[in-house]
């Protein structure tokens, strides 16, 4: 679940946005796009020095000037739930169409074997894996 | 032999991709939007407040706009800032008349109608709690 | 030494997968995979210290932290510097989504020892710490402004930006 998808599932929930200039905006997230541009409704805008407070019915914010967002606690669970529902749906669709089980993992293995055949990377991997293994042995 | 096999693989991959696409369309996995999320039509001929990257702030009547969010505003008043601290706005304004706003340099857009300066609402909330 | 290792990689066991990933010196945001679901520390450009569990990230290193706390370290009372922490204040902040470009530094937190350094510090209310920090930062900005002016009069540039307070 990518951050922007998480943001998407926080729609219509109250969030706090802090901009790079220190300004903060509290409001309900109405929409967001893949650049993290946002529209909020029922907003309270706080100036960078926290001295001026403005009530605004609606505001559009440039994503590139956001410092961070604070999301409601439930967002993570809600997003997880949504994800699960989507996964189930997908599985159902796949089964209905007579999906090919194990197909993906097969591909994955094949690709990795190809990689094994490659010279340069393989060498490097061999060396550093040794490093990891010796450390692992020390840990246990 | 080898080449035949890779060709078959290619087909399979192709089919996989198609399936993936169909699946994604079929289920509602909500990703972030790629199109405009703000309909500027509803602000046409009304006063809006525009903040710029860098801190300038203007109020004007929206006359036109395009996909890149370039705006045309009329009867624009810029709110001047404290020369000592560019974060602090003063009460002074200056008239700019008709202005073309470049989309890329714009930070926020909000309607002026319904906006008002209020007392610190967060202190009140804390006291109540 | 390498023989059993390469065998386990072709086995495709989960352990081998870990090795496979970690063996590459990632230079992109993908290097963060190893920190997912671990407690991490974040320093932002504005000087904020955040501690939380990294839940997800993307190619821009935008980060999502859960159960985040923000902590402010301050020197002994009356000191105007931020060199030798003697006091701290912290507050719970919940879920944070930080845009990657605002991060200065990030690191994993050793949860067995994370509180040890706090034992010698005095715990003060977060609001008080915040107010004091703001005052110190304001003073710093003011001082830098003076410096900029006098350097400029000599044809020199002061390399200071207000947004960099870390």
From TrEMBL, chain A:
GO terms for molecular function: RNA binding. LSm subunits form a heteromer with a doughnut shape. Pfam families: LSM. It comes from Candida tenuis (strain ATCC 10573 / BCRC 21748 / CBS 615 / JCM 9827 / NBRC 10315 / NRRL Y-1498 / VKM Y-70) (Yeast). Residues 84-140 are annotated as: Disordered. GO terms for biological process: mRNA splicing, via spliceosome; nuclear-transcribed mRNA catabolic process. Belongs to the snRNP Sm proteins family. Residues 116-130 have a biased composition (Low complexity). PANTHER family: SMALL NUCLEAR RIBONUCLEOPROTEIN SM (PTHR23338). This is LSM complex subunit LSM4. Keywords: mRNA processing, mRNA splicing, Nucleus, Ribonucleoprotein, RNA-binding, Spliceosome.
UniProtKB/TrEMBL annotation, chain B:
It is found in: Nucleus. GO terms for molecular function: RNA binding. Its main location: nucleus. It comes from the Eukaryota. Keywords: mRNA processing, mRNA splicing, Nucleus, Ribonucleoprotein, RNA-binding, Spliceosome. InterPro entries: Lsm7, Lsm7/SmG-like, LSM_dom_sf, Sm, Sm_dom_euk/arc. Residues 1-19 have a biased composition (Basic and acidic residues). Residues 1-38 are annotated as: Disordered. Residues 35-115 form the Sm domain. Signal peptide: none annotated. One of its GO terms (cellular component) is U2-type prespliceosome. Pfam families: LSM (PF01423). GO terms for biological process: mRNA splicing, via spliceosome; nuclear-transcribed mRNA catabolic process. This is U6 snRNA-associated Sm-like protein LSm7. It comes from Candida tenuis (strain ATCC 10573 / BCRC 21748 / CBS 615 / JCM 9827 / NBRC 10315 / NRRL Y-1498 / VKM Y-70) (Yeast).
UniProtKB/TrEMBL annotation, chain C:
It comes from the Eukaryota. The keyword RNA-binding applies. Keywords: Cytoplasm, mRNA processing, Ribonucleoprotein, RNA-binding. GO terms for biological process: deadenylation-dependent decapping of nuclear-transcribed mRNA; mRNA processing. Residues 27-112 form the Sm domain. Component of the cytoplasmic LSM1-LSM7 complex which is involved in mRNA degradation. Component of the heptameric LSM1-LSM7 complex that forms a seven-membered ring structure with a donut shape. This is U6 snRNA-associated Sm-like protein LSm1.
């Amino acid at each position: 679940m990518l951050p922007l998808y998480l943001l998407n599932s926080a729609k219509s929930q109250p969030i706090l946005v802090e901009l790079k200039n220190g300004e903060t905006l509290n409001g309900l997230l109405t929409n967001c796009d893949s650049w993290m541009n946002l529209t909020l409704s029922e907003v309270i805008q706080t100036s960078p020095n926290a001295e001026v407070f403005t009530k605004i019915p609606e505001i559009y914010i440039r994503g590139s000037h956001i410092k961070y967002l604070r999301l409601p606690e439930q967002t993570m669970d809600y997003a997880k739930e949504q994800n699960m529902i989507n996964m189930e749906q997908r599985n159902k669709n796949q089964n209905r169409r007579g999906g090919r089980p194990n197909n993906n993992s097969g591909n994955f293995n094949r690709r990795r074997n190809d990689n094994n055949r490659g010279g340069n990377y393989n060498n490097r991997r061999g060396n550093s894996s040794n490093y990891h293994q010796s450390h692992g042995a020390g840990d246990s | 032999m080898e080449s035949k096999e890779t060709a078959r693989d290619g087909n399979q991959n192709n089919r996989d991709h198609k399936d993936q696409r169909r699946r994604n369309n079929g289920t509602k996995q909500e990703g972030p939007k790629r199109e405009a999320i703000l309909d500027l039509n509803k602000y046409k001929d009304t006063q809006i407040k525009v903040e710029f990257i860098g801190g300038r702030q203007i109020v004007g009547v929206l006359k036109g706009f395009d996909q890149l969010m370039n705006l045309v505003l009329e009867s624009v008043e810029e709110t001047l800032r404290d020369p000592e601290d560019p974060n602090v706005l003063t009460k002074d304004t200056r008239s700019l008349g008709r202005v073309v706003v470049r989309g890329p340099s714009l930070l926020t857009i909000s309607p002026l109608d319904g906006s008002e300066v209020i007392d610190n609402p967060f202190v009140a909330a804390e006291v109540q709690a | 030494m390498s023989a059993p290792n390469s065998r386990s990689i072709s086995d495709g066991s989960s352990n081998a997968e870990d090795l496979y990933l970690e063996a590459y010196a990632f230079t992109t945001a993908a290097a963060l995979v190893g920190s997912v679901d671990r407690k991490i520390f974040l320093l932002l450009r504005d000087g904020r210290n955040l501690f939380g569990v990294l839940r997800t990230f993307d190619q821009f290193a935008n980060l999502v932290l859960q159960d985040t706390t923000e902590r402010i370290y301050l020197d002994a009372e009356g000191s105007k510097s931020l060199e030798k922490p003697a006091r701290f204040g912290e507050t719970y902040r919940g879920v944070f989504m930080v845009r990657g470009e605002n991060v200065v530094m990030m690191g994993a937190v050793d949860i067995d020892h994370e509180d040890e350094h706090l034992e010698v510090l005095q715990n003060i209310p977060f609001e008080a710490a915040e107010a004091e920090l703001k005052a110190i930062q304001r003073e710093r900005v003011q001082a830098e402004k003076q410096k900029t002016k006098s350097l400029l009069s000599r044809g020199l540039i002061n390399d200071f930006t207000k947004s960099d307070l870390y």
